[in-house]
Each structure stands twice: as structure tokens, then as C-alpha cells.
Amino acid sequence: MKRQLAVLAAACLAACAGPAVKPAVTPHAARGDAVLILPGFGYGPAAGTVFKEISAVAARDGVDLYVAPFVTRSGLDDSRARLRRFIQEERLDRYERLHVFAFIAGAWTLNPLLDQIALPNLTSVVYDRSPFQERAPKIAVTKLPRRAWLRYGATIADVARTPYPPARRPDVHVALLVESVPTPFMVSHAKDAAAYGPFDFACGSLGQPYDDCAYVPLNHTEMYARFADVWPDVDAFIRTGRLRSNANRTPPVQVSIEGGHR
């Protein structure tokens, strides 16, 4: 039985994992800017295709895009070690400026790592935040423990029991893009999610110092599938230190877990 469970877990992980994405042609001398995308539990092959398409767009604008599939089954510590190796092996320190887009598990992995490594060229970080989806790991490991372990191993439990660890790098520009729509998983567990308290969408309540903050009418799954809609804000922030002028900076009101706010 243990062997069968191990095989099932490996098969599920393979089905859910997305690919690494790197610039199609590595320049002899690195260009000025690189963007490192840190996906999380929702990353799969379809999102990998989206990121590859955006990589081609970014390359035409002089930006090299990397996606690091760093999430391991063995916990956040090993995930951080894998991310650290990716940064070293891809020589991301050779760029003048390094920018990061961190999905939810990406933030839980990256932020403590910033206390351990220098990354002097780190210039900006854009975080995907979600008062809805950030409750999903705790719900999964509490209500669906075997399924959660089979799919994600120990890492989802680490995220579930670890409060958000803010990045404290005053030299780095930070933006928050806040999802305002729940995923079907969260809707199906609306009572469990609501039991943890009211949802607070105020940017200042998210526990992360920031320079700019905006709301996107997407759920967590859509943040991957429709990342092309998100990219213009990321591109604006890495170039100017501000999200687009037409970004929605008004927090949603009377948010419902059943329907969210669009």
C-alpha cells in the first residue's frame, strides 16, 4: 500500500508540475533586466505555455524571463534550497537588475530566503496576494489531509502552519496585486474559509510593506491562465516603480466567498 501511495503521489506531482522557463537564447553578456517568476501550488503545464509566450514578448522589450519550478514535496526548507540553486545556476546575479513575481507559495519561500542571501541586484518584487486563497492550504490539510499530502507533500502543510513572512528589504520596491475572486475550491469550502474570520482586503492588512497595491478581478487559477492580463502591470512596475495608472486601487467592499468581487 505504501508503495502504491508513493507511485500515486509521484504521478500526481508530475501531472501538476509546470516546466522551468528560461530565455530562448542566453546572451553572451547579460542584459540589464531579468524577471524571475516563482509559481506555487497551482502551476501546471498550461501555465508553463502562458509563461513561455510572455517570455517571447518580454525578450522583444529587452527583458529576460525565468520561471523556477522550485516547490518540492519535502517542505519549505528544501524548496528554498532548490530556489537558491536555481538562482545560482542561472547566474541571475549577472544582471544589473533582478525583478521577481511571486505567487503565494513563492512568497512563503522567497521572503525568508532573502534573509539568507544577498541578491544585491534585486530591485523589485511583485506579490500575488489573496485573502481568499491564502486560506486554502490550511483548509486542504485540515479537511483533505491525504489528498493534500498526495498532491503536494509536506510543503503545503508547512505553508498552512506558517504565518506570512514579510520581506523587509527597504532597498527593494514592492507591489501587491490582490486577487478579488475566490477559486471554485474556496467556494466549495466557503464555511470553512469564513470560520477563520472576516476577509480583509485592505492593502495595509496583508502584512507586507509595499510601494503600490492594486486589485485584479481574477481568482488564483486565473492568475496563471490569464497572466498575460497581469503582465502589463508587472512590466510597468519593473520599469517605473509603479503599477499602471489605470490599475484598480480601490479595495472591494462586501466581498462574498460565494461570488467574490469582480
Structure overview:
By secondary structure, the chain is of the alpha/beta class. The protein has one domain (2-240): 3-Layer(aba) Sandwich (Rossmann fold). It has eleven helices and six strands. The chain has helices at 2-16, 45-60, 76-89, 104-113, 136-143, 145-152, 154-161, 184-188, 190-194, 220-225, 227-240, and strands at 33-38, 63-67, 97-102, 122-129, 173-179, 212-216. It has a six-stranded parallel beta sheet. Strand 3, helix 4 and strand 4 form a beta-alpha-beta unit. Helix 3 crosses helix 4 and helix 5 (136-143) packs across helix 6. The chain is globular and about 50 Å long. It starts with a helix and ends in a 22-residue tail after the last helix. Mean pLDDT is 90; it is low at 1-16.
Layout: helices, strands, pairs:
Elements (H helix, E strand, L loop, with lengths): L1 H15 L16 E6 L6 H16 L2 E5 L8 H14 L7 E6 L1 H10 L8 E8 L6 H8 L1 H8 L1 H8 L11 E7 L4 H5 L1 H5 L17 E5 L3 H6 L1 H14 L22
The top-level CATH class is: Alpha Beta
> Main sheet?
6 strands, parallel
What's the N-to-C terminus distance?
A: 45 Å
Percent helix, as a range, is: 40-55%
* CATH fold group: Rossmann fold
Average pLDDT score:
90
Beta fraction: 5-15%
Q: Strand pairing plus helix content: what structural class?
A: alpha/beta
Cross-sheet strand order for the largest sheet: 2-1-3-4-5-6
Q: What is the CATH superfamily classification? A: Alpha/Beta hydrolase fold, catalytic domain
What's the total number of strands?
6
Count of structural domains: 1
Low-pLDDT ranges:
1-16
Specify the CATH architecture: 3-Layer(aba) Sandwich
**Treating each run of at least 4 consecutive H or I residues as one helix, how many helices?**
11
> How large is the radius of gyration?
18 Å
